[in-house]
Design brief:
single chain; 370 residues; mainly alpha; Helix Hairpins; transmembrane; ion channel; K_chnl_dom
Length: 370
């Protein structure tokens, strides 16, 4: 029994330290499937999502889901700390049984001593009687200092990535509406030159490159909801992918270059997020978001930006082929994270004409975000 307790304690301590190192310090994604934090997020998010599905759709449900991201990090830090305290406590208790004249305290007493050493409280009620036990206390005290310092320094880095992601969504909502649509976004760019649209897509390529890094190294960012109602990193990504799809399918070669680069960067975000969260793509893509009717609404708007754009049957086939490369993962993440996907056009009707003068006035006076 003492040997088993010693082995279990060593495994707990090493597994926790490795997990904390990979999450906090390692600046690259970890592909190993067996990870403590992966099981933690899987179990806690499944429970949280199940509870969220009991609520009707609305602001209260979104507020409840939005609590999970920050709270999960607090719970993860608490889990790491508890695992280290219990692991060192098991090792102390096992040493008392394996080493002569090392004492005979109960397991619960050794766990309390471990907590005392971890947080360096210095009560001194129970003093280790053996040099190995004293050395273990010193190691645990140093581990506690380092653990607390790392967790304090980790949160600002995490929130810096979250802030950069959210700032781009605010600018996006002003152009694409809330909830956003590809038609509204294209309508906003009607009076811009094609070069202006390409520069805007270039900004989103850079945003996508930043998200590839942050969501691969910090996959828990996917659970963080935007602080603004109606905004969603996944929904915004879907709309930009939709716009890139339209440009790649129907524009001439010279106008496809930037759209292709942006499309590739954003699609890779889906690959990284799905891999990090272990979310499988859906097997059958919904036909809700795009079809010939939606393309008919969008065509006049796109031609005002790119007169050479065409919407023949070949264009629709290319659109369907491109959708198959990102829609399965997009819908899989949407279902898993409880983030609804926007439509290509306004569900109310002719979204391509939404940004006429009177529509803009209504849009600005309704008081809707974005």
């Amino acid at each position: 029994m003492p040997s088993f307790a010693l082995l279990l304690g060593v495994i707990l301590v090493l597994a926790t330290l490795i997990d904390a190192f990979e999450v906090v310090l390692l600046p690259r994604p970890v592909r190993r499937r067996v990870r403590l934090n992966r099981y933690f997020f899987k179990c806690t998010w499944d429970v949280w999502a199940w509870c969220a599905n009991l609520w009707p759709t609305g602001r209260r449900r979104e507020d409840f889901i939005g609590v999970y991201g920050p709270l999960s990090m607090v719970m993860l830090f608490a889990l790491w700390g508890a695992s280290l305290i219990v692991g060192f406590g098991l090792m102390q208790w096992a040493l008392q049984r394996l080493v002569p004249a090392a004492g005979a305290d109960a397991l619960i007493d050794q766990i309390i001593i471990s907590g005392d050493a971890f947080f360096t409280l210095g009560y001194g009620d129970i003093v280790p009687h053996h040099s190995l036990a004293r050395l273990l206390v010193i190691v645990e005290a140093g581990t506690g200092f380092g653990f607390i310092a790392l967790t304090i320094g980790y949160l600002p880095v995490l929130y810096q990535h979250f802030t950069r992601r959210d700032l781009q969504l605010i600018e996006f909502s002003a152009r694409a509406g809330s909830p956003p649509t590809a038609a509204a976004l294209l309508g906003w760019h009607v009076h811009d030159s094609p070069e202006a649209l390409e520069r805007w897509l270039r900004d989103w390529e850079l945003w996508g490159s930043d998200l590839i890094e942050s969501h691969a190294v910090y996959p828990m960012l996917a659970y963080y909801r935007s602080q603004h109602e109606g905004h969603s990193w996944l929904g915004s990504l879907a709309v930009v992918l939709d716009v890139c799809t339209l440009l790649i399918a129907g524009a001439d070669h010279a106008r496809r270059h930037q759209a292709t680069a942006t499309f590739s960067a954003l699609r890779r975000i889906l690959d990284e997020a799905s891999e990090s969260l272990r979310v499988a793509p859906v097997r059958q893509v919904s036909a809700r978001r795009m079809g010939a009717e939606a393309l008919g609404h969008l065509s006049p708007t796109i031609r005002r930006i790119l007169p050479a754009w065409h919407d023949d049957e070949a264009t629709l086939q290319v659109i369907q082929q491109l959708r198959k490369t990102y829609e399965p993962r997009l819908e899989g993440l949407s279902a898993y994270l409880l983030l609804p996907l926007p439509d290509w056009i306004d569900p109310a009707g002719a979204a391509a004409e939404r940004f006429g003068r009177d529509a803009v006035v209504r849009h600005l006076t309704e008081g809707r975000p974005g």
